[in-house]
Amino acid sequence: MDLTGAVWRKSTRSDNGGSTCVEVATNLRDVVGVRDSKDRQGPSLGFAPADWAGFVRAVRSGRFADRW
Questions:
Q1: What's the order of all strands across the beta sheet hosting 22-25?
Q2: Rg over CA atoms, the chain
Q3: Looking at residue 18, what is its pLDDT?
Q4: 67 lies in a domain?
Q5: Between the CA of residue 66 and those of 3, 10, 13, 59, 63, what are the distances in Å?
Q6: Are 49 and 31 in contact (CB under 8 A)?
Q7: What is the per-residue pLDDT across 2-44, written as a single tens digit (0 to 9) for each?
Q8: Are the C-beta atoms of 65 and 47 separated by less than 8 Å?
Q9: Were both Cys, which of 2, 21, 28, 57 would link to 14 (CB 3.0–4.6 Å)?
């Protein structure tokens, strides 16, 4: 997984000024990167863009609301 050139962003809804949040890089063609905002040099996860889009749709629809 090559995250060279990733532009990381975090949610505007993150708490503690963003210290307890994940960052997402969606600017790359073949991978969506996800990392811990507190450990930017640590490991990152990579997802296929279609899989990430499906996850985001499920979250927005409330599919996981009862699991938090």
A1: 8-10, 22-25, 32-36, 44-47
A2: 13
A3: 55
A4: no
A5: 33, 23, 19, 11, 8
A6: yes
A7: 898 999 998 776 666 656 688 999 999 999 999 988 888 889 9
A8: no
A9: 21
pLDDT at 12: 72
In 3D space, the residue among 45, 39, 41 whose CA is nearest the CA of residue 19 turns out to be: 39
The full length of the chain comes to 68
Which tokens belong to 58?
């499920």
Residue 46 CB neighbour total at 10 angstroms = 18
Residue 68 located in a structural domain: no
Q: Residue 66 falls within a domain, yes or no?
A: no
The number of folded domains in the chain is: 1
| DSSP per position, 8-56 | EEE-TT-SGGGTT-EEEE--SSS-EEEEETT-TTS-EEEE-HHHHHHHH
Domain holding 19, by residue range, is 8-61
